[in-house]
Amino acid sequence: MKVLIVYDSAFGNTEMIALAMRDAITANNEVSAVRTGDFNPEMLKGLDLLVAGSPTQKFRPLKNISDLLNSLPRKSLAGVRVAAFDTRIDIKKVNNKALNFMVFIFGYAAKPIHRLLLAKGGTAVADPEGFFVEGTNGPITMGESERAKAWVAKLAGIH
């Protein structure tokens, strides 16, 4: 199976999650994890699964991932299984009513990424997923790398 994980990262946490995902499914698969700036449309040729992710900042994905997905031709992901993820702060730990309200209204980065993947013809294989970090700069919350590995393994059909 040919898998591409494309991501953007502000403080390195989303990159660490993307690389953990890559490493979890390398056996018997052709897997690449690339930052948005290293993406080349040729990478979509023969692709079976595209996983795209970004940190959540200002309740949305970073501009580079949105721009990359928006730049793809309309049906360029036809026949490709797709999934979206983000890294985010656990608002239950913050326990701030204003923040809870804003998240309720605007959400997290994974959902708009998911919509863009579908708009380009991709077939969703999972709901948008979020992985927790302890603060804006991180670190990744304990256990989240393992959860990300299990999530992508399930997407790739590895149990």
Structural class: alpha/beta
CATH T-level topology: Rossmann fold
Helix content: 25-40%
- The low-confidence parts are none
CA gyration radius, whole angstroms: 15 Å
| CATH architecture tag | 3-Layer(aba) Sandwich
CATH homology-level superfamily: Flavodoxin domain
CATH class: Alpha Beta
Strand content: 15-25%
**CA(first)-CA(last) distance:** 15 Å
Description:
The chain is 36% helix and 22% strand. It has one domain (2-155): 3-Layer(aba) Sandwich (Rossmann fold). Helix 1 packs across helix 6 (144-155) and helix 2 packs parallel to helix 5. The two termini are 15 Å apart. The chain has helices spanning 13-24, 63-71, 91-94, 97-106, 110-119, 144-155; strands at 2-7, 30-35, 49-55, 81-89, 123-124, 129-133. With 159 residues, it is α/β, with parallel strands linked by helices. The longest helix is centred in the N-terminal third of the chain and has 12 residues, at 13-24.
Pick out its properties.
6 helices; 6-stranded parallel β-sheet; alpha/beta; globular; 159 residues; Rossmann fold
TL;DR?
With 159 residues, the chain is an alpha/beta fold. It contains six helices and six strands. Strands 1, 2, 3, 4, 5 and 6 form a six-stranded parallel sheet that branches.
Task: Give the SSE map.
Blueprint: E1 2-7, H1 13-24, E2 30-35, E3 49-55, H2 63-71, E4 81-89, H3 91-94, H4 97-106, H5 110-119, E5 123-124, E6 129-133, H6 144-155
Helix pairs in contact: 1-6, 2-5
